[in-house]
Amino acid sequence: MKIITESLFQLPEVQVSEKKVKVPASLIGVFREDIKDSPHIKEISRKIHTFYERLEKSGFKGKEGDFFEIDISPDEKIAIVGFGKKDEQDWLRKENVRRASAIGLLNLRNRGFDTVQLLGFEDYEREALEGAFLGLYEFRKYREIKGQEKQEDQSGGEEEKKKIKKIYLITERKIGNLVSYVKILCEAQNFARDIVNEPGNVINPQTLAEIASAVAEKYGLGCEIFDFEQIKKMGMGGVVAVGQGSAIPPKFVHLWWKPDKKPKDRIAYIGKAITFDSGGLSLKPQQSMVTMKLDKSGACAVIAAMKVIAQIKPEVEVHGVFAACENMPSGTAQRPDDIIKIMDGKTVEVVNTDAEGRLTLIDAIAFASRLGVSKIIDLATLTGACIVALGEYTAGVMGNSEDFAWFICNLGRQLGEKMWILPFDKDLDEKLKSDFAFVKNVGDGYGGAVTAGMFMEKFVPENIEWVHLDIAGPAFLTKKIGYFQAKGGTGFGVRTLVELARRLEKGEYSSSKNKKNKNQKSKNG
Ligand code: BES
Ligand code: ZN
Ligand code: ZN
Fold first, then answer.
1. Of 13, 118, 226, 339, which one has the greatest count of Cβ atoms within 10 A?
2. Nearest atom in ligand 1 to 441's CA
3. In Å, what is the CA distance from 120 to each residue of 79, 128, 134?
4. pLDDT in tens, 380-390
5. pTM, whole model, 2 decimals?
6. Which of 288, 296, 382, 386 to mutate to test the pocket of ligand 1 (most atoms within 8 A of CB)?
7. CA-CA-CA-CA torsion for 100, 101, 102, 104, nearest 10 degrees?
8. What residues does ligand 1 touch, defined as CB less than 6 Å away?
9. Which of the four pLDDT bands, split at 50, 70 and 90, describes residue 95?
10. Cα-based distances in Å from 338 to 129, 281, 436
């Protein structure tokens, strides 16, 4: 494959303007309570006297995602999209605006408009842009057949050729470099989606490492890639065990960003990087194996976040770490019953080779722990159980520091990445007890997301604050939802990772509170 460092999807150009512009299509966003007060809607009603009647007749109530369109004149289309209730919780209001922007723009795009002005999005400029950039995304690489561009394909053909090329964002607020920041962020998120959407016959441990290395070179990140021999030498028994069944050997990737000045903090991002998860000898049933190209989503988010970090250059040291493996059954694959030794010296009894992610992640944690970081956050499509617990669209947050876990949880939700805490429980610990090793790699049928997290916690040094995000659900969509109007990879986690570094730079999270908690925890047993 051609190694890429940018998303194949081109973002529309954005121009900010204080005053309305003359373009063929306008999209007006409005809260439910403001339908009658919106100056933009009032203006239409002055031009078309029956307007409010028609709006009411159409059933438009300003509910989130409600859409109404009208031709003011043969060359002026106006569309209105609902933001929902004004007194919704902050994070949900923002989410509704993202969705409104995406739904409205997609509708106008499908009607053939390539230039649209956004009205009524003041105070929500960031969300309007996120909705646009992420909502318009598509992955068409394997559907565009050379020389047949004009021909209808089975899934829409011509319709899908339409594109929004330019957006005028109308706002009187001074929004500084917001547009370029959101562009960098969403381009990276779409880049992560592109890589996730690439199948296992294209992205394997080798090509995933090549992508990371190309990004590092282009954007000026430190990069070291360890091959199978070096992985074995470092004692990464988890990575070896998971990678040894594949014809393509594993790669261990370390990217880093170090600021010129003394860093305000040091953090490592770790991503699960199983380029395809067949389950190994504990083979998955056919139906569960489909979509398992998604199992590298954590690493894709890490690569994308590192790409943003390289561009925004925070005064924080940031490491991106992942162990790329393909989990395959073969004569060289690890077996159930195998006992392996992790980089930190602890032993694991492998009961189920399909619980492979955690085996690679604990070696990555051991590696990251030696980099002098104070915090680790890992992103992993780790358990089906997390999807059972929280549904498809919410990530599970776990970790060894409740303060840090809640900090990440609140941060992610504000950014449109839904997540919620799953509590560790000492009473579940016995499920992981092994008769032969320090620990075994799976519990029983209950609380699978939590026991997976608790398994990993055993490999995290106490002096490091660690949060684990189980993104098995929200990393990949089999249905269009909200402003994600393309099935497949979502790039979940990119925004949270990047924003975390920015908050650490501003000193918005301090771990002193947490230390107190930790003491309390040990006092309470
Ligand atoms: N990659 C899967 C988890 C997964 C499942 C992600 C569905 C996204 C959608 C992981 O490696 C896995 O197979 N987990 C097992 C754990 C079990 C063997 C304890 C699972 O969830 O069934
Ligand atoms: Zn698995
Ligand atoms: Zn997996």
1. 118
2. 19
3. 12, 10, 20
4. 999 999 999 99
5. 0.96
6. 382
7. 80
8. 277, 294-295, 352, 354-357, 381-385, 442, 448, 472
9. very high
10. 50, 12, 10
